[in-house]
Every structure is written in structure tokens, then in C-alpha cells.
Design a protein that fits this description.
Elements lengths: L6 E6 L12 E7 L4 E2 L3 H4 E3 L5 E8 L6 H22 L5 H25 L8 E2 L2 E4 L9 E6 L1
Parallel strand pairs: 1-8
Antiparallel strand pairs: 1-4, 2-3, 2-5, 5-6, 5-7
Helix pairs in contact: 2-3
Length: about 150
């Protein structure tokens, strides 16, 4: 018997706040089975496929140099790694998915740190990266999930 699929609907909203002149947030929603990521409309509402889905919002650290660059680099690096390493994994399990997500965040951290060291004008840049992955069927997850970041 086949389990019903998990369907996600996602909305993201960011606020500049009272003290910043520009927004340092970068949203990422990715259907890792199809290889689609935001801003494609088909990613905002999709069924979780065999490779799962990724949701994150990277927020450039308040007041740090080039936080918007760091958050964009993090989202790009994490998505690229999961789109290659995880997509090619022969073991498709929750443990392996979690390992690949952790690995992707660590690689992004290394790349941001190296870039900041190489470019003095962005030295000290940083970002936070709350991320979540969904992998599985409705027998292990709620029938639908909604993520909202503010």
C-alpha cells in the first residue's frame, strides 16, 4: 500500500526593521526531487518527492559587514551542495539527508569565512541559517505543512 504524499505550501515575508537601511534576508525553498527552487511558482506549493524539500531563511547578522552577501552566499552554497551531493546519493534515508544538510551548512560557513578573509571590504560578514528539511511520507509527517518566516 502506498502512503499518501506530503504537500507543502510556503510563504515568506521579511521586514527591514527600524534600524537597517537594507534587507539582509535570503529565503530558500527547494524541491530537491525536481531540482526546482524559489522563485519558481511550482516550489511554493509542491508535493515532497523522494529527495525531500529544503526550507531556510538566512539572515545577515545585524550590523555585520555585508550581511546580505553572506546570507545570499549561504543559500546558494547550501542549495548547490544538496542539489549535487544529496541528489547523487544512493542511500536515501532520513539520517543521510540530515548528514547532507549539516555538511551543506558547514561548507557554506567555510566559503563565507574564506571569502571574508580574501576580501577586506567584507571582513566580518556573517549570517544565521535556520534550515529545515522534510523527507518522508504522510505516515511519518503531517499531511500538510506550512512554513512562514517573518
Amino acid at each position: 500500500m502506498t502512503s499518501p504524499s506530503v504537500r507543502v505550501s510556503v510563504f515568506g515575508k521579511s521586514d527591514l526593521g527600524l534600524t537597517r537601511e537594507h534587507n539582509e534576508d535570503t529565503f530558500l525553498v527547494a524541491d530537491l526531487s525536481s531540482g526546482s527552487s524559489n522563485p519558481q511558482p511550482d516550489v511554493r506549493s509542491h508535493e515532497v518527492g523522494p529527495r525531500g524539500s529544503l526550507f531556510m531563511v538566512a539572515d545577515g547578522m545585524g550590523g555585520a559587514a555585508a550581511g546580505e552577501l553572506a546570507s545570499a552566499m549561504a543559500a546558494d552554497s547550501i542549495y548547490r551542495h544538496l542539489s549535487t551531493a544529496w541528489a547523487e546519493d544512493t542511500e536515501v534515508s532520513a539520517a543521510r539527508f540530515a548528514y547532507r544538510m549539516k555538511e551543506a551548512v558547514e561548507l557554506a560557513n567555510q566559503q563565507i569565512y574564506a571569502s571574508a578573509r580574501e576580501h577586506p571590504d567584507v571582513r566580518g560578514m556573517g549570517t544565521t541559517v535556520p534550515a529545515a528539511g522534510v523527507l518522508g511520507t504522510s505516515s511519518t509527517w503531517p499531511r500538510s505543512a506550512t512554513a512562514e518566516a517573518t
